[in-house]
Design brief:
Layout (H helix, E strand, L loop, with lengths): L2 H28 L4 E3 L5 E5 L2 E3 L1 H13 L7 E5 L5 H12 L46 E4 L8 H4 L6 E6 L2 H15 L9 H10 L7 H14 L4 E5 H6 L1 H11 L6 H5 L2 H8 L2 H6 L2 H4 L1 E3 L5 E3 L18 H15 L12
Parallel strand pairs: 4-5, 4-6, 6-7
Antiparallel strand pairs: 1-2, 2-3, 8-9
Amino acid sequence: MTFIRRTQIMSSERDEEEEQKTLQQHAQLLTELPKALGTFETDLYLYQGMWLYPDAILSIMLMQNHFNHHPTDIFLTSFMKSGTTWLRSLMFTILNRSRFDFSNHPLLRKGPHDCFPVLDLYKPKDYNITNTKPLPSNSPRLFATHFAYKMLPSSITEPSSGCKFVYVCRDPKDVLVSIWHFNIGLRPKELPPLSFEQVFNMFCEGVIEYGPYWDQVLGFWNAALESPDKILFFKYEEMKRDPEVHVKKLAEFMGLPISIQEEESGMVKKIVEFCSFEHLKSLEINKTGSHKANNGNVVPNQSFFRKGEVGDWKCHLTEEMKDRIDRITYDKFKDSGLTLGAAPQ
């Protein structure tokens, strides 16, 4: 056996020992943390100020101990149901625009959630850094997560890491509506129906998956103010109004700016049209295909494509509900410089 091979085996054994320690720490931690029922009537735990399922807490603990970053890594970050599917498609297409023709593009055969890995169910063995599983691309590597900024390993958030973050936020009223529809679509038949009022109250109180919403958004907003070269902060509504401008910003931030020749050939317009909600929703893979998460759960691709509209909350919220969310938003963000949705009446 060669020296290199022996070293690899010893390193692997040490990693397994460390992983077992993390598993034991995780099991003990769950006996100590505050807990509450989530939307699927399983326990959420309050970990570092955020409500998470046990698997997600384990993942962040494993990430903090085992994730090996590259200085060119780019992380797509957001609260759930804030435009992640669209941004996944745009980032993957921008990164690989010289590799794939639109007529034979991976997104025609795979859903956006299979374009690059999500870290919320991170396991060291699944993310061998030499070759990430779904559609490995050239440097930079892309990852996605809903974890709060303060939870991410300091090895990737510190300025010297070289890593970058793209964050997209959305009017919390539309986020709430999208969460409710997504959850009722995946809710097991044996569970009682989940009312909109239930999810509304959970959302407002912050006791919902990855919540509180406002704390997560504010964490990335403040980090973006401190390190604008490291974190690109987008608003979903502004992207919808002028997607071509934001695609060019995204390409520049990712280190792959749109060239004059590409601009003249209509590349930006092609990317916007190819990754549009309407086009992606119309693809057969997103009508009948599915995404298999690392925990084994299978989610139909169509679950990620409902409306994608701005202001759909008007069809669901009463005036009293609207005012309550707007008041919370104003109170949370009033000293930050960040505005989302309407000012409270």
